[in-house]
Structure prediction request, 278 residues.
Amino acid sequence: APLDKTALAQPLEITQADLFEYVFSDPLLAWSFVLNIALAGLTILLIVYLGRNLTDPRAKLIAVSVMLISVVSISSYSGLTSGLTLSIIEMPAGHPAEGMTTAGEDGVLTMWGRYLTWTFSTPFILIALGMIAGSNMTKILTSVAFTIAMCVTGLAAALTTSSLVMRWWWFVISSLFFLVIVYIILVEWSAEAKQTGTGDLFNTLKLLTVIGWFGYPILWALGVEGFALLDVAITSWGYSILDIITKYIVTALIMVWLAKEPSEVTAGADYGSSLPGF
Ligand code: RET
Prediction:
């Protein structure tokens, strides 16, 4: 029998160009991305300006750490804007967004690039906070490891399409990792910051960070990944506003304080020279 070519035909795939066009067909969505690229750029300029006279290596390390938050952010939002890190994903059976279509394709728009790039941005927030608290390498690296684990399992939650239970199971795992970070910030670093003499600044940073960070899993649950109560553009604005608080505002507060090179964070020229004499 002759080969039935129609039976071999693949369904039409949505291309990156289609996603790029889709982002700009919804100005609300496009602006939630582009605004953050601009703010991250301005934050980098602010860091360069306020940090221009820093001499102490420990103060410089904190400045570099907060700068990397915005560097990652520009890349993250560029990935979302271009469509590179967006996908239209079909939700599993029983999910409230099951059967939804986006741009004529079965599925919902998933901004998976966000979860991926948090893996690279959140460690730098924690390194800066830990150093301001005067904490040690063990606690700082523990918090970094757990935030990477939290973001990667959050990515797994967003990309799991086989089963609704498995999506939420990933969410639970990610949340447990999150609680470790909350504990380190609220208990360990709060106490250390008081001893170090950075308690006042740390208190403000702690509130912005802990309250801000709790917003992310709440949005995930309310948005299209979870119970689908919020549409994609609103969810995206939610994340973008949380990013403004947890990244740029936190960075500005740190830099204004750091520019004076307070003795609580400075360590002298020998800091970081692990090989004495070199
Ligand atoms: C997810 C879903 C799974 C459960 C939890 C989450 C937490 C995410 C957080 C993100 C923080 C991001 C920041 C980004 C700044 O660049 C992954 C949403 C707990 C806390 C601060």
Remarks:
- The chain has nine helices and four strands.
- The chain has one domain: 15-258.
